[in-house]
Hints:
265 residues; 0% strand; globular
Amino acid sequence: MFNMQLKAIWSYRGFIWGSVQREFQSRYRNSILGSLWAVLNPLATILIYTVIFSKLMKARLPGMNDTLAYSIYLCAGVLTWGLFAEIIGRCQTVFLENANMIKKLNFPRICLPVIVVLNAGVNFVISFGLFFCFLIVTGRFPGWVILALPLVLIIQIALAMGLGVVFGIMNVFFRDVGQFIGIVLQFWFWFTPIVYPISILPKSIQPLILLNPMASIVAAYQSILVYGQWPEWATLIPPAMIAIVVCLLAIGLYKKRAGEMVDEI
Length: 265
């Protein structure tokens, strides 16, 4: 089943790549700053959180008391969360937004979430590339541990895409799902140690926070980018297993409901 979906995606790779190019061009057409807009929004968020938590609330990281370290900590969490939230947010509406295309053209519908992931990936590469430049300029580049980033990124994208496809299919049949997921993502963000270190929470609450798969993923990014250390690989096993289960669920649900979606949209 999984191999069949991969073959379908590969067969329509030209269609996928062309769609990614068209969306990127249309997004920044007639824009003076162009792709820099992909950076300005997360940058504004990071600046606000740095002022509020580092200056006003005196938030400090274990073993690091300088504001620069906290800013890097924020970047590691906010930028990667932005990728996660964008994939889920856009996948949940992708079938409804492309209703006309789905009805008129014969192509594997699973290509649409792939296009969403690639578009989100382009924005992520732009913003994260500038973040890398910032790390180099400030002398905070983590070194060889940066090689661990791709594996963490794969787990995160698999989790986001799996959830996004499940929510996207559900949203076709139950339109309240889209509104509900938007609220869930807001709570999910604050239940993930992105703007605060988990060490400031009461010890009784910390195990509950760690049940959140994104907590382990974001902690892995922060370990690499802030502390220059290899992530604790054992903590990534649960989110990786969840990502696999969710992806299999998404494929199974898609295979079962793909025909019915055409009638519902």
